[in-house]
Amino acid sequence: MSETAPPEAVAQEARGIARDFEAALRDDPGADRRARLAGLRLAAEWIAIVAVTYALVYAVRSVPLKLALLIPWSIYASLALDNITHYANHWPLFRGALANGLWRASGVLVFFNPREIQAIHSDHHRAYSRPDNDERVFGPEQRGEAFWWYLLVESLDGLRVLVPFRAMAAPVLAMGARRPGHLREIRAIRWAFLGWFALLVAADWHDTLFYFVPFVLLVGSFASLVMNLTDHIPGDSRHPFRFATYLDPATRAEELCSAINHQTCATHLTHHLFPRVHWIHLRALQERLLPIYRRNGAPRSLIVNSTLTGNPFALARVLRELARRRFDLA
């Protein structure tokens, strides 16, 4: 189909490709088993990341060594935990409700509230599914702000979800109206944050305030913000194939970083377009859609590099590029 074809005609072409792909998956007897095993691997990864994080914060005594390890680890771990939470909210890690509930409760250890994140993320998907989408990750109201100030303010504002007596966002309240049990869980986890933080301070106030707070809470909020920005910048929020970013790894380094990230950043556009397709299949579906993406100028992700492995210098380059490209989002 020509690159000058109307967007709706191109969208229909993409939907046809996706329908054929999903039909083939339904006929694959091993697809469901692979999805279950993938969920278990993410759960094991979650446990390992949380364990290493606590070991670095509270067990390493040498300050230079602790800083040398925590700086890259906190970047990698924050992006990885954000990624796992995102996938688990779309496709539960376990088959049983109890096991999934225990996993969500374990988010208290690293101050993640999966149900609350799910409500906000679902609203984000709904916004970008509308033809008249008006969502902006860096919209007109921020145009007069210094980008670095914006990053600071938004990262700190992201911590509001940790405070039990702060008002909840509209998408959370809307979900609570439909599912009161989810709202009760969100409130309970928020109060659990406060209790767990008090225990950490009581057990070791120094490492909690000087290492856990900056490297788990602040870096976690900041890294999530950066990932959200690079998921849609650069881009055109009203174009069906330019409103989110993607990347087809072209080098071994990009392949490695994308694999570590479970293809999350590299397939964000594909995930938005076809959110029902399980994450383990997104790369294969995207390969079929690449000709369409290329014809329509789909924007490449800025973050599929060693930032995803915790390289602070690569992160600095991403931030500089974001500062330069932030107005590209129409």
Short recap of the structure:
Helices cover 65% and strands 0% of the residues. By secondary structure, the protein is mainly alpha-helical. Helix 3 packs across helix 5 and helix 5 (114-129) crosses helix 7 (170-178).
Essential attributes:
mainly alpha; globular; 65% helix; 330 residues
* Distance between the amino and carboxyl termini: 26 Å
Largest sheet: none
Q: Please, how many domains?
A: 1
Residue share in β-strands = under 5%
Fraction of residues in H or I helices: 55-70%
Assign an overall shape: globular
Tally of helical runs: 13
Q: What is the mean pLDDT?
A: 90
Structural class: mainly alpha
N-to-C SSE string, H for helix and E for strand: HHHHHHHHHHHHH
List segments where confidence is low: pLDDT < 50 over at least 5 consecutive residues: none
- Tell me how many strands there are: 0
What does the radius of gyration come to?
A: 20 Å
Q: What does this entry look like structurally?
A:
The chain is mainly alpha-helical and 330 residues long. It has one domain. 65% of the residues lie in helices and 0% in strands. It contains 13 helices and no strands. The protein has helices at residues 7-26, 31-58, 63-90, 97-106, 114-129, 147-157, 170-178, 180-203, 205-230, 252-260, 268-273, 282-295, 312-325. Helix 2 (31-58) packs across helix 9 and helix 8 packs across helix 9. The protein is globular and about 60 Å long. It starts with 6 loop residues before the first helix and ends in a 5-residue tail after the last helix. The mean pLDDT is 90.
